[in-house]
Amino acid sequence: MRLSLGIRGRLALAIVLTAVIPLAAAVVLARNMVRQTADRFFVPEVRQNIERSLELYAELAKATKATMRLQADKFASDAALKEAVQKNSLTAAKARLEEFVSQNPNVVSLTITDRLGQVVVSADRGSPVDEHRENQLNVRQTLGGAPDSDTASAVPEDTDAGVAAARALAPTSGQRINMVFATDKSRFESFDQMSEFVTAYSKLEARRDSDERTYVLAFAALLGITILLSVAVGTRLAVGVTRRASELALATRLVAEGDLSIRVPEEAKDELGDLARAFNRMLREVESSRDRIEYLSRLASWQEMARRLAHEIKNPLTPIQLAMQEVHERLRSLSPEQKQLLDLAREIIETEVQTLRRLVGEFSEFARLPECHIEETDLVQFLKELEREHALTGQVRPDDDRPSDNSERAVSIRFDLPNGAARAHLDRQMLRRALVNLVANARQASRGRSRPAEVHVTLRRQQDFYELLLDDDGPGVPPALRTQVFEPYVSTKDDGTGLGLAIVKKIVMEHRGHIEMLESPQGGARVRILLPRPDRSSTLVLQHSAQVT
Predict the structure, then answer these.
(1) pLDDT digits over 399-440, tens only?
(2) CB-based burial of residue 432 (10 Å sphere; 0-12 exposed, 13-18 middle, 19+ buried)?
(3) Per residue, what are the HEC states of 11-80?
(4) How do residues 508-532 score in pLDDT, each as one tens digit?
(5) Are 227 and 16 within 8 A, CB to CB?
(6) Tens digits of per-residue pLDDT, 245-271?
(7) Please, what is the Cα angle at 546 between 540 and 548, to 5 degrees?
(8) Which end of the chain, C or N, has fewer beta carbons within 10 A?
(9) Distance between CA 101 and CA 472 in Å, rounded?
(10) Is the pLDDT of residue 465 over 70?
(11) What is the mean pLDDT of the chain?
């Protein structure tokens, strides 16, 4: 458990450090960048120069309004204009007003009204104030007197105390002159924009420290969230890794205790998944090797027992047979009934002796079964030789000179072989003996039928092995016995010893192959043999075999 927690902690820490170190560096760099940017932007000299510019604009506005009021005073105190108005010489008054307008381009209109506010005379430049391009200043004064009032549009107000006092002392009756002045608006728009900029600049400068703290706190919050997410992701990843590592550790302990049936999940496609698959392949190979070794060990014990049985049974057979013959020769004077009984006894004894001799022969053959001597050969060519032999003689004979029953001709063998060579490591003589035993089993299983037994031999190339199938049309093997028929002394025939299939299994296992009994599509038995390919790993053959079994 300490190992799992250590892996989990280290993996989570690695992910946290991977995420935090760059982000922490980014926080420091961002803080320095914000501070340097603020230092470059908030320069005291820039603020002072901007404020000076605003003061210049204010002075300009003030001077412009003062100039306009001076002009207004000049118009209001003009003696000729006052005299013309007093004499009701409207033509002369109008001419004087027009002269004023023509001489002063910033004058839009001049209007003289009586004490009731009725227009007496007026003059203008011919166009009204353009609100988009001009600012307007209205000045009202008593004709020949002090200023009465003035209003301005979009021009900064004059706060001069002297003008305010003059307005306060201006008379409220008599004839008045209303003057409308205009000035270029663009001159004062820049002033407004700059005023707004200075205001915003001041606010930003006041918020400089608080903004810097806000940015740092935001990055710190992001750093904290990243740490939490990294810990969560790291823990989740670590749980999967440690869980599978724990499964492997548990499986290893069970294997150490002797349980080779344990398997670990192989779904993952990463390195741990590869390790799990390799671990399972190793277990399958070890399990198959152990089964093979145990089977061969048991078989060796059975061979030793068969050798002793053959020796013990063979010795008394000849004396028994000779004694019976001696008794039969000497007892010639018996009555016909007695002689018939003696003949029957002799026939029974000789028949049983022959049976025992056959058993002794089978025990002896099983006991002296040699080891396989493997060499590389062509499996397809080997089977084609068996096919030609069967086509010529009607039977398949072993390589030795052991006599065979002529009834073996009652077997029809059909071969289905692939094209091309099939390189394999074989002992030709031993594998031939195994196939002969299998064909003999099919023939014996079909005894008593009017038609010959049919055997279909098929060879297939699989990814990691060769699959050799022998199908017959006999009665087949009951499902309960399919896993036992390859054990010695287990047979489905009344007169069988159960050694033929045991010999076949021993030969196949010494080829590092696998054999099993199945049901044939022809209705009989199917013997399935898997032989490893020399260019593939035999472990994979055992793996497939274990899955099928």
Answers:
(1) 443 444 444 446 889 999 999 999 999 999 999 989 998 988
(2) buried
(3) HHHHHHHHHHHHHHHHHHHHHHHHHHHHHHHCCHHHHHHHHHHHHHHHHHHHHHHHHHHHHHHHHHCCHH
(4) 988 888 999 999 988 889 999 999 9
(5) yes
(6) 777 778 888 877 777 777 777 766 777
(7) 105
(8) N
(9) 132
(10) yes
(11) 75
Dihedral sign for Cα 270, 276, 280, 285, please.
Answer: positive
Q: Which residue has the higher pLDDT, 532 or 289?
A: 532
SS3 176: strand
Q: Enumerate the β-bridge partners of residue 179.
A: 110, 139
What amino acid is encoded at 250 in this protein? L
Name the one residue in this structure whose structure tokens are 């021009």: 155
Compute the distance between CA of residue 309 and CA of residue 303 in angstroms, rounded to an integer: 10
Q: pTM of the full predicted structure? A: 0.51
How many whole angstroms separate alpha carbon 402 and alpha carbon 368?
A: 14
Closest CA to 324 of 352, 366, 305: 352
Please report how many Cα atoms fall inside a 13 Å half-sphere around the Cα of residue 294, on the Cβ side: 7
C-beta of residue 412 within 8 angstroms of C-beta of residue 447: no
CA distances from 357 to 232, 254, 311, 354, 543 (A): 80, 50, 11, 5, 42
Q: How confident is the model at residue 539 (pLDDT cuts 50, 70, 90)?
A: very low
- In degrees, rounded to 5, the angle at the alpha carbon of residue 29 between the alpha carbons of residues 28 and 34 is 100
